Amino acid sequence: MLFNTLATALVASGAALFASASPIESRQTLATVFTSCTVANRVALTFDDGPYNYLNDIVNTLDANGAKGTFFFNGNNWRCIYDSDIRPRVKYAYDHGHQVASHTWAHKDLTTLSWDQKALSRITGAYPAWVRPPYGNYNNLVRQAAATRGLSIANWDFDSGDSSGATPQQSKNNYDARINQHPSTILTLNHETQSGTAYDVLPYAIQRLKAAGYQLVTVAECLGRAPYQSVAAPGTPDSSWTC
Predict the structure, then answer these.
(1) Share of the chain above pLDDT 70, in %
(2) Which residues belong to the signal peptide in this entry (predicted)?
(3) Which is catalytic among the residues 98, 103, 107, 191?
(4) What pLDDT is stored for residue 106 in this prediction?
(5) Structural domain of residue 132, as residue ranges?
(6) Is 49 one of the annotated active-site residues of the chain?
(7) Following CA atoms 196, 55, 229, 233 in sequence, which dihedral angle do they give, to the nearest 10 degrees?
(8) Do the domain assignments include residue 40?
(9) Among 26, 46, 184, 216, which is disulfide-ready with 18 (CB 3.0 to 4.6 Å)?
(10) CATH number at residue 117
């Protein structure tokens, strides 16, 4: 199982994983896990697995509707985040006021969290405060790894189903069902890599959510917490910017 595989990998790399913290501290410190928003009437639209081809169009759709999104980026999943045509997309999302966060380096190894944070900090200047583990899977070792890097874990309480075979219409039906329940808040899971999500589901969901009276905000805003550990000027690409 993936859970056991992740745990085994983390145990095997324990020395490197917690090099920045004392043994006592690492045992005591666990990252907080959030699965729902805490600020009423807020919805966080989140997008996993990018940066991908549809990123700028998703940003434009959000912008056109006065909405904010959160992008959980990988470092080297579909493409290398340092590629010359990918870096500007990441910066575009950040510069337009959307939250950028970690989805680990290659969507499978929780021990590589620091490399993903480093890439985002280099490209945008912002050092993220949030991570979403691949598939939402975590245990106490994952929480320790996140905590040593100053990260909180953000999962979700609503899945559009776009990565598990749902058609765009089925994803829209899923949104309708949740909105009709009218919960106080919704923390969504969508995937940036799905064209149906980018061009069909997202515009529909935004209109339905706004009509229901929700404010569409970032994960940090829906939780009343900071999006980044620090913010500085972005870096200048050099030979070390590589996957």
Answers:
(1) 85
(2) 1-21
(3) 191
(4) 78
(5) 23-231
(6) no
(7) -170
(8) yes
(9) 26
(10) 3.20.20.370
How is residue 130 written in tokens?
């949030």
Q: Which of 18-27, 102-111, 228-237 has the highest mean pLDDT?
A: 228-237
The amino acid that residue 43 corresponds to is: V
Q: Give a yes or no: residue 11 inside a domain.
A: no
Angle at alpha carbon of residue 111, lines to 26 and 18, rounded to 5°: 25
- Map tokens 């490209």 to a residue: 123
CA pair distance 118, 161, nearest whole angstrom: 30
Tell me whether residue 50 is in a domain: yes
Strand positions, DSSP E, 18-134: 33-34, 42-44, 46-48, 70-73, 99-102, 126-128, 130-131
Tell me how far apart the alpha carbons of residues 187 and 222 are, in angstroms, rounded to a whole number: 8
Of these residues, 48, 49, 159, 162, which one is catalytic? Answer: 48
Query: What total of structural domains would you count in the chain?
Result: 1
Q: Is 191 among the catalytic positions?
A: yes
